[in-house]
Design a protein that fits this description.
Residues 57-82 form the SHOCT domain. The chain crosses the membrane at residues 12-30. It holds the Pfam family SHOCT. It comes from Candidatus Sulfobium mesophilum. This is SHOCT domain-containing protein. The chain is mostly helical. The chain folds into 2 domains: 12-39; 54-86, no CATH class. Helices cover 57% and strands 0% of the residues. The chain has helices at residues 14-39, 57-67, 72-83. Helix 2 packs antiparallel against helix 3 (72-83). It is rod-shaped. The N and C termini lie far apart (92 Å). The model has no long low-confidence stretch (mean pLDDT 76).
């Protein structure tokens, strides 16, 4: 009656085990990734440019100038604005 007579279900029993294993693996990967994001020593860094959360605007501007992200004219103008001079 069945085309696979004599073989039973074969290896079909392994697929639910693979599915459960994949769910556990994904859970552990997500848990490990979130844990590393929270417990990482440099967690308070902004990440995009490496400024600390405690850096003042002038410190950030100085770092950007040193890296070449702003030219001298922009640097001087922004520095005057930060210091409150027109």
């Amino acid at each position: 009656m069945f085309p696979c007579t004599g073989f039973g279900y074969g290896l079909w029993w392994i697929f639910p085990l693979i599915m459960i294993g994949m769910m556990v693996f994904c859970f552990l990967m997500m848990r490990g990734r979130m844990g590393s994001m929270v417990c990482r020593p440099g967690f308070r860094k902004s990440g995009s440019h490496g400024e600390d959360a405690s850096d003042s605007p002038l410190d950030i501007l100085n770092k950007r100038y040193v890296r070449g992200e702003v030219n001298k004219e922009e640097y001087e103008e922004k520095k005057r604005v930060i210091n409150g001079h027109n």
